[in-house]
Every structure is written in C-alpha cells, then in structure tokens.
Design brief:
The complex is a heterodimer of chains A (332) and B (336). Chain A is built from 11 helices and 12 strands. By secondary structure, chain A is α/β, with parallel strands linked by helices. An 8-stranded mixed sheet of chain A has the order 6-7-8-3-9-10-12-11, sandwiched between helices. In chain A, helix 3 packs across helix 4 and helix 6 runs parallel beside helix 7. The longest helix of chain A is centred in the middle third of the chain and has 18 residues. By secondary structure, chain B is an alpha/beta fold. Chain B folds into 2 domains: 248 residues, 3-Layer(aba) Sandwich (Rossmann fold); 64 residues, no CATH class. In chain B, 31% of the residues lie in helices and 22% in strands. In chain B, strand 7, helix 7 and strand 8 form a beta-alpha-beta unit. In chain B, helix 3 crosses helix 4 and helix 4 crosses helix 6. The longest helix of chain B has 18 residues. Chain B is globular and about 70 Å long. The two termini of chain B are 41 Å apart. The mean pLDDT of chain B is 91. Classes of the chains: A alpha/beta (332), B alpha/beta (336). At the A-B interface, helix 7, helix 8, helix 9 and helix 10 of A face helix 6, helix 7, helix 8, helix 10 and strand 14 of B.
Amino acid sequence: MTKSAPGVRIDGLTVVYKTPAGELPAVRDVDLTLEPGTITGIVGESGSGKSTLALSLLNAVQPPGRISAGSVEIDGLGDVVGLKNEQLRKARGKHIGYVFQAAQNSLNPLKTVGKQLLDLGRSHGVDDLRGLVREAKELLGRMGLDGARVLDSHQHELSGGMRQRVGIMLALVLNAHLVVLDEPTTALDMITQANILKIVREVHAERGLTTLVITHDIGVVAEVADRLAVMYGGRLVEQGPTREVLGAPRHPYTKGLIRAIPRLVGDIDEAQALPGRPPTLATVPAEGCVFRERCPLRMDVCDTVDPDARVDAGAGGPRAVACHAVTVKEHA
Amino acid sequence: MITGTGIVKTFKQRGKVLGAREVQALRGVDFAIPKGGAASFIGESGCGKTTLGRIIAGLETYDAGDVVIGDVPMSPLKPKQRQPHFRKIQMIHQDPYSALNPTRTVHQTLHAPLSLRAKQTGRSRSWMEERAAEVLSLVGLDPGSVLSRYPHQLSGGMRQRVVIARALTVDPEMLVADEAVSMIDVSLRLGILALLKDLRERLGVSVLFITHDVATARYIGDDGELYVIYRGQVVERGPVDTIIADPVHPYTQSLLSAIPVLHGLERPGEQPVEPLESLDESQADEGCLFARRCPFRGERCEDERPLLHLAQGVPQEHACFFPERRSVIARPMSEV
C-alpha cells in the first residue's frame, strides 16, 4: 500500500482562543503551502502561534480554541477543517503522523513501548498486528536502535534521544505520509540533536514524506528544511527557500532573529538581542502590524494597517514577506 | 577565587533486583575560577557538568578531593560552617518558570533574602527597599513596574532576570548558571548572556556557565575558560575562542561538529567528526573513556587512560594520545 507524499494548502487560516477578554487570534490569516515531498520548517518564539498552526493540520485545536476561518486542504483527505470525529480519528495516524513537543515525556510510563504500539494498532483497526510489530522493529532498526529491546522497554529505560526516535516510529508506523514534528530536538544535547536531524532527513527521503518541522531554533530548520516560514504574533511574516531566507532575510523580524543567534566565530558584538519582548495572546495588537513595537523600520501606516504578504516568484521557489517598509523600499 | 582539586563523585543506584550499579559522575576534576572570571562547562547530557556545578554551589556532596572558596577548604568544615561560604555562590537554574514562587510578587521574592541580610548586618527596612530597587536595576528591570508583579505577568526573559536579581541580593562572588538561557526565547537570549557579562565587569562577580550550546559560552566573556567534560573527566581545557577555533580532542571536535550549520549564511567545516556510537555509560572504564566512540583511536587508547596535560605546540590542555587539529566548525560565507 504505497502512498505518495501529499501536498498541503493552508488558506486564510485563523484560530482563536476564547478568553475573558473575548476571542483572541493565536493564528491570523495564514497562507502556507507544503509542496509534496518537501520539508518545511516553521520558526517562531513562544506565543507566535506555531504549535497552534501545526495542530490545525490535524484539526486538533482544543477548546477554548477553535478554527474560526480558513481551510486546510490535504491531498487524499480534503479540507480537514470540515472533518468530524471518526473521520478525523482515522486520518490522524494513518495519513498524518504527529510527533508531539516533548515526545520524550509523552509515552505512557506504565506500559512498554511494544504494548503502546499494539494499542495504537488496535485503535486504528489494524488486522495484521505482527506486521505492525515487524514494521516498528524495522523503523527502529533504521534509526540505529535495537528494535526488539526498545519494544520491551518502559519509557524510563530509554534515553531522551531514544524516546524521540520512538516518537518518530509511532508517527510513521501506520504508514502516514504527512508528518508533523513539534520541537523535535528541545532538551536534547547537540550530538543527539544532530543524530535525530539526520534521521529525520533520511527517513523523509526514504519513505517519501511531506514533513513539517516546528521549532524555535533556526539552526534546526537550517539543517533540515527546504523551505522556511517565520511566524510572529500569530502572523506568518516571511517565507521562502531556507537558504535564501537565511542568506538574505527581508522582514525586519527575520533579520533580528538571525542577528540574535550566538555565533561560534566572528565579533561578539555583532550578535544582538532584539529589543522588547514577543507578544502574548493578550498583548498582540488588534490592528496594524504585529511586530511594530520592536521594529526599527516602523512607519505610521504600521500602526493601523496589517501588511499583506507580498509574494515574489524566485528561482528556488516563491518568497513572501509581509512588511510595509520592505514593500515601500523595493517598489519605490 | 574558587578552586577544586581532584573532585570525585560516585552515584550508587540501588533498589534494582539485580544488584546495585555505580556511576562515576566525576573522576578527579580540577578547576580554578578567578574572581570576576568566567568558566564554562560543556558536554553531552550525563557527562557530569551539572553535578560539578551543583557541587561548586554546595548543593551536592563529593566523595574525594576538595572545593576551596577564597582560601578556605570546605572538606574539614562541618555542614553548618560551610553555609556562609557556599552562600557566596548562587545558582541560576535552567527554568525561570519553576524557579519563582507563583504566589509571590517580585517584591516578596526579593524580600526574603534581603531581610535575612538586613538582620545579619543590622540594616534598616529602608535599606531593604533601596537594595531591592538596586538589584532590579542591575539586571535591567524597571523596579517601579515589576516590583508589584507576579511571575505569570512576566516574560521568560524577565523572570530569569528576577532570578538573577534574587541571587544578587546576597552579594555573591559567583553565579552558577546551569543552561540559564535554554528556555528563554531566542530573540532575548543574548540579552541575558550580555547581562551576565555586564555583572562580571561591573560587580566583579565570577560566572560559571554550564551549557551544551558552545556558542553561548563566548558571550559571557571571551576571556573565559572552557572545560570540555566527558564521562566525568575534563578532556580539554583552555581559552574559549582557542578551543572553538582549534580543538584537538576528538570529543570536543564531535561536539562542535554537531552544531547546526546555517546554510545560506555559513559553510560547514571541512573535517566534521562524528562519534562512532552514542553515549553508553555502562561502557568499560579501561583505557580512554572516549575510545569506543572515537574514529581516531589507536591501540594504546584501549588500555591506557590519557590524562589532562599541557602539550607542546598547542595552547590548551587536553587528554588525548593522538591530538590533532581539525577544521570542524562552520564559518561565515562572507569570511571565505
């Protein structure tokens, strides 16, 4: 049952959370296309809406949150925003594999990995459980683990890097071809992180996946992603081919974020923290540009008008940036 | 000056059906952190860097060797007598969300250590208020706007600053920062690192920085020393920029090779080093501790343990029989 990598088209997606102050948008009017067979990285700080966006792919935003507008079209599934309970449950796992943030701690501590695997198989109506175990062992072996030993282990017997690989195995074992990894390497040290990223790249290529990686760490995206999308305050402020965005960032937030990365060589003073702090759900401005409070290029129009994303066709794929100042500068 | 000689720590695991297992967390570590100086401990999870930091902060006991604070060795002292010495060393934890009591305002958080201090030195209430405002200003917060706030009303970066301000209330000689920026938003991390550097320069506080992210170690001061720790042994030690630019130990080279390359901005190093297998603490203790994972091991490495020494031709100390310079780190494209 080979499936091919699905494409995903997110169009005008808005997700709101109900708060005492009314419904506030965590994700606002986001357009994003995942081309089949690519790895896309979404970078953002805490409160940028990146995890909420990722959950929308599963239509799994929990109350008090809800998708209030837009659509998420996935090849072979249709618009997941319209899917209901049972259809959704089946889609999750079979079509979309999800490796949750802190996958290290998302295993059941009372059951062996093997038992959890069988639970997963039964809940998805898999008839050939032996085949499922075989597949799981193969995947674990592929990731450099002793499959039989891992399936017999409890969570506490595995290291952080091993648990992360178990998470990836559970996301892929039902033959999902769209995979979402939420912060796949936080709390792992550098060597383990490099190892996991290498596995993500290789498994992605071998199994023919469409992969979405959510992270706060630009380095992670730089290592694995074909395309990079930058989120801030619920808005997608810039996206494009990873190398182009990193080499020549256009949005002032992307520039600031790259400048804020501690570097191994060069003048220490070149790296600078961004002034101010990222907005929370409660402090995101209701109108105008979400980044203006921290922006060195702020203009009058930024206070009142939220900039639309301007899309340019580039050599390596489309690039988009949502900034009044950039638009003025490049079209003056 | 805070020094340590030959520190040994063994953790005994008990309760397992099939007998106890011992883990050697530290195998005779020496260190010296001068007043106002900076040192960084780097290594993988489980290498012993946090244990060493906790020993230095007086939060963990040790089995052999000694910690000397100023010129007072700690071993001969009774626990109660050690307290005033270890109080000069304050720990900044990784998670600023759990390090502050959520039911206390910033004012209340600072009040507790300050009132103790005031009692000891016979100072007045107004001194406490002044001092609270002073430490908040030192960490770059506006006392007027944060004193009455609760932790949940502050961002991660601001919380970490409050934690540092609380540590400063007791006039410490050293701050031990264990992964102090790993939970802070990326755009704000450098601000916290710059603050630590600033406190060194302005107050003469030494900073011990424990991290797995080598690049951050440069930002608390390029005069700092880097200690690369592997399975409880320091395997390379020297000035931070020297070790980053010219590491000679294959383990240090593996750590540096693992740092993500910002493709588009940087070119990867030409001779990246990848360990042959992942860390397994149950591996045999004979010979070089890194031998099993080392792509460059020789016969000698299997039987003999190399000790940290200053070798000819390189400015840093290392513990390797076959040290060799390799170009492992990514360089900016603009440099080429």
